[in-house]
Amino acid sequence: MPEQISAARSAPHESVAVLGLGAMGSALAQAFLRAGHPMTVWNRSSGRSSALADAGAVVADAPSVAATSADLVVLCVFDYAAAEEVVRAAGDALAGKTLVNLSNGTPAQAREMAARAVQAGARYIDGGIMTVPSMVGAKESIILYSGDKGAYTARRETLAALGTPIYLGSDFGLAAAYDIALLSAMYGMFAGARHATELVGEARATTFIRDLLVPFLTAMTGALGGDDSESPWRCRQSH
Asked: Which residues cross the membrane (predicted)?
């Protein structure tokens, strides 16, 4: 069973480095700052760090400098190819650190990144952010984690600054798999809803969505199961 804990504020003394300051990375850094953590940030282009510097973050000129300054290193870049470049640039500075990678990718990529991180001497946790940047730090926001359980347990109160953390297991690829699975369901729902509104026409779409579509889809979620009862969607093993 996934482990879920409240997003209570975390230990303020633990230092954090955030590598990558896109929309999501900046939101992560801001959430850590609000929770009282000493913060170092790095980004490939320096222009995105000015607001965080004004808020009290130290701006590093290299990933290795940022990693050296922190107990916890959080990586959030475009994809795993970019993440691999940053990890290589950080090099030996990751030794003895906990590296949390919140970049998007596949389970296989997560496992490959874990091997690189461990080789560099880091304890590795992979993650999936199930929220938008404006909601980072809210209790209602969920972030999935998998990988080194000891490292997760030691850092989960700090990670709770980002939202409610859910630990899925020691397989490094689980967070990426669950992330893709949840997004697949969401995009399927949105595609079906868009098709439905096209069928009824633009003039009727607003009332159709409010009065019929949302209540109908909400009622249909009961058919998905979620307990030990039989569901038409539940996977069954072949015998």
From this structure: none
Q: Which long-range contacts (CB under 8 A, 24 or more apart) does 34-39 make?
A: 34/137, 34/161, 35/9, 35/10, 35/137, 35/158, 35/161, 36/9, 36/12, 37/10, 37/12, 37/13, 37/158, 37/161, 38/13, 38/14, 39/15
Query: Which pLDDT does position 238 carry in this prediction?
Result: 39
Instruction: Among 172, 193, 215, identify where a domain stops.
Output: 172
* Number of domains within the chain: 2
Confirm whether 236 is domain-assigned. Answer: no
Quick one: which H or E segment has residue 192?
helix 174-200
> What tens digit of pLDDT does each residue of 154-192 get?
999 999 999 999 999 999 999 999 999 999 999 999 999
Task: Kindly state the tokens that stand for 134.
Answer: 């404006």
In this structure, the answer to whether residues 15 and 96 fall within a common structural domain is yes
* Full-model pTM: 0.85
For residue 239, being part of any structural domain is answered with no
